[in-house]
Amino acid sequence: MSAAPDHRPRMADLPLGERIAKAMPVLLVPILLVLGFLAIGNPSSWLTLTVSGLAMGMMIFIMASGLTLVFGLMDVINFGHGAFISVGAFVGISVVLALAEWAQAPSLLLNLGVVLLAVLAAMAITGMLGWAFERVIVKPVYGAHLKQILVTVGGLIVIEQLIHVIWGPDEIFFARPEMLKGAVTFWGAALEKYRLLAVAIGLVLFVVMRLVFRRTRIGLIVRAGVENGEMVEALGYRLRLVFIGVFIAGSALAGLGGVMWGLYQEVITAGMGEEMMILVFIVVIIGGLGSVEGAFIGALLVGLLQNYIAFLEPKLALISNIALLTAILMWRPQGMMPVVKAK
Amino acid sequence: MLMRLISGDRPRSRILTLVLLAIFLGLLFAPFLFPGVRALETAARISIFILLAASYDLLLGYTGVVSFAHTMFFGMGAYGVGLASQHMGRGFGPLILGSLAAAVLAAALAFIIALFSLRVRAIFFAMITLAVASAVAVLVSQLSSITGGEDGFTFQIPRALGPANRMGEVMGVNITGKILNYYVVFFISLALFFVLLRIVNSPFGTVLKAIRENDFRAEAIGYRVVRYRTIATCISAAMAALAGSLFALWLRYVGPETTLSFEIMLDLLLMVVIGGMGTIWGAAIGATVMVLAQTYLQDLMGSAADATMAIPMLSRLLDPDRWLLWLGVLFILSVYFFPSGIVGRLRGGR
Lengths: 343, 350
Prior knowledge:
The structure holds two protein chains of two kinds. By secondary structure, chain A is mostly helical. Chain A has one domain: ABC transporter involved in vitamin B12 uptake, BtuC. Chain A is built from 13 helices and four strands. The radius of gyration of chain A is 22 Å and the shape is globular. Chain B is mostly helical. Chain B has a single domain (2-346), classed as ABC transporter involved in vitamin B12 uptake, BtuC, CATH 1.10.3470. In chain B, 75% of the residues lie in helices and 4% in strands. Chain B has a two-stranded antiparallel sheet with strand order 1-4. In chain B, a hairpin with a 2-residue loop joins strand 2 and strand 3 (173-176).
């Protein structure tokens, strides 16, 4: 009879250092908040800047989440994603302008109704557009990155130009709905109402997405598909259908982000999607391709950093994002929370 | 001799040879064949864009890496020459120094970008170059005290290359410094074009093609994929910067609109795709076709838009400002249906 081997398994926690390293991406946001507070020194300006940074971050996250999932699921990099942002903004703002009476009425209910209608219209249109885009532009070039990039850039240009054809070549200026103008004062800090709304929408959306991914069957399939698509298909799921669903949802989210960004800026141009795509790409890369949580943290970092730097040293704001990207990639070459492996 | 000049990379199609010869002779004798300022302007643009497209093809066609920062390097060359001439006075010294410094700087920047992105996966490169290029474009238009902002700035080039320098008459054409300038641009472009041809037909170029076809296998055979891709990126950036220097020399002006805009990047993509990815000859044909189309077809669109004034949507679609729309459609169609471009077609559908 052989005796049990002579070792005692121990239940040991990871050392503190490793646990911190694991949680580091999540800790970066509070660290940045504290650093910002120390650098700015004035609590009320800090609060104002933080809220606007968070609002910006939430909007970027909404636009970026779809892109990162699409890449994770099917290894498709969609440079045309920016076009959905622009189209969403134009559709949504057209609704706001068409319902000008509601928008100007000093009633919160009517105002929010206008925003809701604008958002729904934008999401419906961009969702359908996303479906068509997947069919016509992306489908024929699966598996070929080079062609994907080329073709989706072509798609971006065509959609952007069609916006010019439909809505005219000029940018459109407009006013936000009545009750969303102005700011509330809180501890001596002026917080724009609309920014608070944007933060709220972003937070709700993130929580809902997390619930869907962690608690539902479809979320499970999507997450599994991102990690190892072939295995999920071998288990009998039709990943292509899932993928088309995610593509449509991601496009609709880009449309939502577009409306929100348009309302934030109070001006829309056909090129706005292209401009936002730069930030979206930065967020997706530093978050780690395929990771929704990573994109969320990345978006908050980008938003906060840009607002703090713009206040502290306006000239540096232009390159703050590139600096952030460089720093993160030096620290973690795959991004903060890479999910996509071996593809 | 000729074979050595083109590095043994023959066009391999009779029509292709004829077209290339026509382009070459047309550009060589442009001041005599096509009199007029606009024709000369177009010829110079073609020469420069052939070089630029060829340098981009080294990256896109031979290495299989998509970069959106090629106009950034192009702009670096242009601003290098512009700034050097502005601060050091007119003369050949600043021109040479400016363009060489810009080329070195461009290669260094390309090296840094490549280090960050190519190391992980090639697809990062496309996204990061896009981000960096747009940041640089914004930076250039913001730092107006140095770069002249959105307006850019003009500068003076040596008197010998200016229109005031008259050197007599040949075949009924007044030879001015402007024509001399054209030949400087043309011959430098031609020489650099042959250098690129040499590079892609060297063992180094063969390795690049192997990486493009199957990077995993190339790595397994023992070639350091990242190193080769990085070197190709640096060479292509330096070449783009030199093309930018020539462009600035020709225009005697630099500005973000002419060197850094995303539209030029798109033109460049289209030149390479239409001409045929993975052949330097394709870049030459693509650049010629695109520049000609841009110069002369946009007028045609304008008159078409006027003619269809009565039909509301159609005339808007045909507006010359919507030139990019048709470019985009053409681009998608050519990626789908002519991935090997004009050259691939002429060589017999390969």
